[in-house]
TrEMBL record:
Protein name: Molybdopterin molybdenumtransferase
Residue span, MoaB/Mog domain: 194-335
Entries under SMART domains matching the protein: MoCF_biosynth (SM00852)
Job description of the protein: Catalyzes the insertion of molybdate into adenylated molybdopterin with the concomitant release of AMP.
Keyword Metal-binding found: yes
Enzyme class: transferase
Cofactor(s) recorded in Swiss-Prot or TrEMBL: Mg(2+)
Family annotation (InterPro entries): MoaB/Mog-like_dom_sf (IPR036425), MoaB/Mog_dom (IPR001453), MoeA-like (IPR038987), MoeA_C_domain_IV (IPR005111), MoeA_C_domain_IV_sf (IPR036688), MoeA_linker/N (IPR005110), MoeA_linker/N_sf (IPR036135)
Family named by the database record: Belongs to the MoeA family.
Source organism phylogeny: Bacteria, Bacillati, Actinomycetota, Actinomycetes, Kitasatosporales
Enzyme Commission identifier(s): 2.10.1.1
Pathway, per record: Cofactor biosynthesis; molybdopterin biosynthesis
């Protein structure tokens, strides 16, 4: 029999981060950068206005008041995106919109509310209106030099290091890459994980359930868990207990997989098809028993030749397959991703009830952990208890050598939601 740690070490021994690829920005969401990103230009790329108003020369507005406004000739109208800019000379102003480039000669922007907006009333305007030919504008207060100008390079200067290799790309990092003109980036890709459940008793949820049949739930749990871990997961539900069919399905799936996960068919039953299909032959999947509960029977190996794809064959009981995923498959996905946190966090917590565990097996009980450092088991030990599993947010670990823990003992807790 293998210990949990020996099996995990064996599973991880050949796994490395996947080779980097270039992806379009939105395809790179959730991936980690595989390059340092350095700015090749300034941002903003040009001096521009942060307000809708008038670009002016400061000397022209010195001493301006509501009673004695500066009256300036409007020589142009600059919208955001304008390429042709009027020159602003003494006694002149240009209408300008937020984000539009500053015209030559102007030193500041008077927001429209500091002017009469060209209405000729001398009263503060509330908003820009349509431009009037040969317009004059009255500026009602002095405009300090540089007011309401967003300077070229004030956000990012050419040569700035923007993002380090290893950075996880979320919305704001992708926005930054777009802002500096990157259409694609070099990232560590998401592993492609094929999830396959076996069992002739399985029907797809939503289909009629006949005598002796049950709904395939493992392929949903495992596919969602693989996505949660950062993978692109493909669900192949309900392969019947027929070794030839299973081999054909695996052959078919190999081309799109960095990792294959199966559930069911690894025990000692007469129809344990995964074992039958993958034991011996050209594949080198090894079936073994682990000192743990649940999750005793496990398979692991490479299929599709020596440089093939790793395959983890998990037990069929729903709780067993999910816990096996968390302990063994998730770390493979996280390693392939190049993530710094390969394993789920483990914390200590006080359990107010007595716990029992079989000798020689590390037990993983479903539990509810609260941030005050307490944990309680939910449901019983049975590996079929999906109701309790869905209420759990952690696994309470009872070590191999321990058969009973008194109420109030501190235990290790694997957090599933962090
Ligand atoms: N004589 C023995 N019997 C069993 C042993 C043993 O050591 N000796 N080990 C038990 C343990 S522990 C486990 S775990 C299971 C593992 O069995 P398999 O991996 O072969 O899984 P199956 O027999 O195919 O299914 C077990 C159980 O889970 C249900 N199942 C399977 N797939 C799904 C699915 N996709 N969605 C929902 N439920 C699923 C299946 O109907 C069975 O009830 O073996 C024990 N037996
Ligand atoms: O190992 Mo089984 O996984 O105990 O139910």
């Amino acid at each position: 029999m293998w210990t949990v740690d020996e099996h995990l070490a064996d599973v991880l021994s050949g796994v490395t981060v996947l080779p980097a690829i270039d992806l379009q920005l939105l395809d790179a969401q959730g991936c980690r950068l595989d390059e340092d990103v350095v700015a090749t230009g300034d941002l903003p790329p040009f001096d521009n206005s942060s307000m809708d108003g008038y670009a002016v020369r400061t000397a022209d507005t010195a001493g301006a008041t509501g009673e004695y406004p500066s009256v300036l000739a409007v020589v142009g109208d600059i919208a955001a995106g304008a390429g042709d800019l009027p020159k602003v000379g003494p006694g002149q102003a240009a209408r300008i919109m937020t984000g539009a480039p500053m015209p030559p000669g102007a030193e500041a922007v008077a927001p429209v509310e500091w002017t009469d907006g060209g209405t000729g009333t001398g009263h503060p305007a509330e908003a820009m209106t349509a431009p009037v030919a040969d317009e004059e504008v009255r500026v009602l207060r002095p405009v300090p030099a540089g007011a309401h100008i967003r300077r070229r390079g004030s956000d990012i200067a050419t040569g700035d290091r923007l993002l380090d290799a290893g950075t996880l790309l979320g919305p704001t990092q992708l926005g930054l890459l777009a802002a500096v003109g990157r259409g694609s980036v070099r990232v560590r890709p998401r592993p492609r994980v094929v999830v396959l459940s076996t069992g002739s008793e399985l029907v797809q949820p939503g289909e009629p359930v006949g005598p002796g049949q049950i709904c395939d739930s493992n392929s949903f749990t495992l596919t969602a868990a693989a996505r949660d871990a950062g993978a692109i997961a493909y669900r192949v539900g309900g392969v019947p207990d027929d070794a030839a069919v299973l081999r054909a399905v695996l052959e078919d799936q190999l081309g799109r997989a960095d990792l294959i996960v199966t559930s069911g068919g690894v025990s000692v039953g007469a129809y344990d098809v995964v074992k039958e299909a993958l034991q011996g032959g050209e594949g080198s999947v090894d079936f073994r028993k682990l000192r743990m509960q649940p999750g005793k029977p496990q398979g692991f190996g490479m299929i599709g030749g020596p440089a093939g794809v790793p395959l983890l064959a998990l037990p069929g009981n729903p709780v067993s397959s999910y816990i096996s995923f968390e302990l063994f498959v998730r770390p493979v996905i996280r390693t392939m991703l190049g993530a710094p946190d390969v394993h789920r966090p483990v914390v200590r917590a006080v359990c107010p009830v007595e716990l029992r565990s079989p000798a020689g097996r590390r037990q993983f009980l479903r539990g509810r952990y609260t941030p005050d450092g307490r944990v309680e088991p939910v449901g019983g030990e049975g590996s079929h208890l999906v109701g309790a599993l869905a209420r759990a947010n952690c696994l309470i670990t009872v070590p191999e050598e321990v058969t009973a823990l008194a109420a109030g003992t501190e235990v290790d807790v694997v957090l599933l939601t962090a």
